[in-house]
Design brief:
seven-stranded parallel beta sheet; single chain; three-stranded mixed beta sheet
Length: 362
């Protein structure tokens, strides 16, 4: 009987995998996982916005060798030319403007990147003439949020108050429309493409230095020995370690690639319900591993954010046999200890591969 690792290596070995947004937080982790399982990885992205940046650190340490190209996904001609050249077997589309607060400051860029950029990618796939599995990553914020405790399922109404959430909901509609219009066996359709969307919860993990995210903000404050100021400390989110949704993306991409009846639909990849915790609760858990204090002064930017958010994951469990592996406490422990080990002198590769090996039982 094959182990999980043997099964992963058997499928992913030598697969041509394209990751858009490969130098982002999730893209960097996904790139390293796929290289671990011997995939032939290609990356398309802009220059990284954060310093440090996990992808750049892994490359500097000579632990992540992928073929990467600096391309703005809003540039259709440049993007389509490169996709045709790569001719991928699997695509993970993570390139996006992913921050709620930034979407208020740059709404047009957010809409152009998240909607038109995705459509540019899909249009570039019309000439693909071989089996190609595509996973478009959106967000748990695509649902019309009613601030209720009931979790959202894939067939619930889409919506979005802020530009980020609305653009991702629009992206889901655009993907669905494009798939219905251009995938299949009719004259204008491509029967080789299997396209799904993935909606995951609020991911945490080491190597994230993005602005306005609670874990990087907390680590930065505690490292500087100052209190962390919380925005909306009583708001609840479905926290999960980055490796959990990534394992779901891998499974969805594989099932669509090998199946005669692919799951060309939307799938939620969220944590178990007990991982739904307030922002304050998350920081209190971090303090168990990295002592610090919480400021009583709460940032009060008058920007709307949802108070409650929770995903139902029945569909992924039943159709994909996927379930989250690490609970809230273990996720926070691994995320916090990644930064502790890194700032104590371990390389980014050592910190990241330790978690990957632990998660996949290597």
């Amino acid at each position: 009987m094959e182990t999980m690792v043997e099964d992963l290596e058997e499928f992913w070995s030598s697969k041509r995998v394209l990751i858009t947004g490969h130098n982002g937080f999730k893209g960097s982790w996904l790139s390293l996982i796929l290289k671990k399982f011997k995939a032939d990885v290609y990356g398309i992205s802009l220059l990284p916005e954060t310093k440090p940046n996990l992808n750049e650190l892994l490359k500097k340490e000579q632990k992540l060798e992928i073929k990467e190209f600096l391309i703005d996904i809003r540039n259709f001609h440049e993007l389509s030319s490169k996709v045709k050249e790569i001719c991928p077997d699997i695509i993970f589309h993570l390139a996006a403007q992913p921050l709620v607060i930034k979407s208020y400051k740059n709404p047009l860029e957010t809409w152009e990147t998240n909607v038109l950029g995705t459509l540019n990618l899909l249009e570039s796939l019309k000439t693909i003439k071989k089996n190609c599995s595509v996973v478009i990553i959106t967000t748990d914020k695509v649902y019309k949020n009613l601030n209720i405790h009931c979790g959202y399922r894939e067939d619930d109404e889409l919506g979005g108050y802020d530009p980020y959430s609305a653009s991702k909901a629009a992206c889901e509609l655009a993907v669905s429309s494009w798939r219905d219009s251009f995938c299949g066996s009719n004259n204008q359709r491509n029967n080789f493409l299997k396209i799904s969307t993935a909606r995951s919860g609020n991911v945490i993990g080491g190597g994230d230095w993005s602005e306005d995210r609670i874990v990087p903000d907390t680590i930065k404050a505690f490292k500087a020995k100052i209190p962390v100021a919380l925005r909306n400390p009583n708001y609840t989110r479905p926290w999960q370690h980055v490796l959990d949704p990534l394992s779901g993306y891998l499974k969805l991409a594989k099932e669509n690639y090998i199946s005669n009846s692919p799951f060309c639909e939307a799938f939620n990849f969220g944590p178990k319900i007990e991982s739904n915790t307030t922002v304050n609760g998350l920081v209190e858990e971090i303090i168990k591993y990295w002592p610090g204090t919480i400021s009583k002064i709460v940032e009060t930017e008058s920007l709307h954010e949802s108070e409650l958010l929770h995903l139902q994951i029945d569909k992924s469990y039943k159709l994909l046999n996927w379930r989250p592996k690490w609970g809230f406490e273990k996720s926070v422990e691994h995320a916090t200890n990644w930064y502790k080990k890194f700032y104590d002198g371990k390389t980014a590769y050592e910190c990241t591969i330790d978690d990957i090996n632990n998660f996949f039982g290597i």
